[in-house]
Amino acid sequence: MESTGLDGAKFNFILLKIYAVLWGIACKSRKATQLFTNDCLQMMYPTMSSTVHQALYQKLCDQLQCGPVILATVILTQGEVPCPVGTKMLIWGDAETFHGLSDDEAEQTVIQQAFEVLKTGIAQRVKLERDEKRGVMQVWLTRWQGSDAIATAQQLLKSLSAPPSSPPSRLVIPLVTGQAPYLLSPAKPSLRNLQGGDAFIEELIA
After folding, report:
1. In the chain, is it the N or the C terminus that has fewer CB atoms within a 10 Å radius of its CB?
2. β-strand partners of 34
3. What is the pTM of this model?
4. Any idea what DSSP says for residue 167?
């Protein structure tokens, strides 16, 4: 008898479609961060405030006028770590940074890997293991560059400045190489370009 079970790719696709249809069900009062993987959907609540996000994306907009910028995002944590999921850091030029991971050793490791991403444009996942008594963080590095990146950053700022009653937009960071971050708006709730891959999705609430 032929099996009617769903394989991982089909199951992931169905999850993404359900997410798009149930746009308004996500948490309204807190900044929700979601991680889609081929196996599961997780929801976390990072502590970066909207004010910090606005400052970070404003800096991203400004710096993109001068050249490429790496956006480092904490996408997973386990155990005792210095910062929560959703924490972000900008890196550009000669190790110039904005915001941070609240841990000098972790930041130096991320900065070193960021140099390679700045050169190649190939996104990277950095796993930061502290010691046996402390936790693990995973940080995703993506290079933002050019007019499309500037437009996305400007849209992010606009979303964070929207009235609280407005439906929230979401930042989608595909966790695969060759796919740029983009904004998922209430008017266009299509999870495009994921191609069955993983994604870090953050709700943008002013």
Report:
1. N
2. 43, 201
3. 0.75
4. P
pLDDT in tens, 51-72: 778 899 999 999 999 999 999 9
Residues of the chain with pLDDT under 50: 1-3, 20-32, 37-47, 193, 195-196
Element (H, E) at 183: strand 182-184
Q: Please give the distance of CA 132 from its chain centroid, rounded to a whole number.
A: 27
- CA-to-CA distance for 181 and 20, rounded, in angstroms? 17
- Return the closest-CA partner of residue 70 out of 120, 172, 141, 153: 141
Distances (CA, A) of 88 to 25, 40, 98, 171, 195: 25, 23, 9, 13, 25
Taking each continuous run of H as one helix and of E as one strand, the counts in the chain are 4, 10
| Closest to 38 in 3D by CA, of 17, 4, 3, 7 | 7
Taken as a whole, the chain contains a residue count of 206
Q: What are the CA-CA distances from residue 47 to residues 87, 193, 201, 205 (Å)?
A: 8, 28, 15, 13
Are 104 and 46 contacting, i.e. CB atoms less than 8 angstroms apart? Answer: no
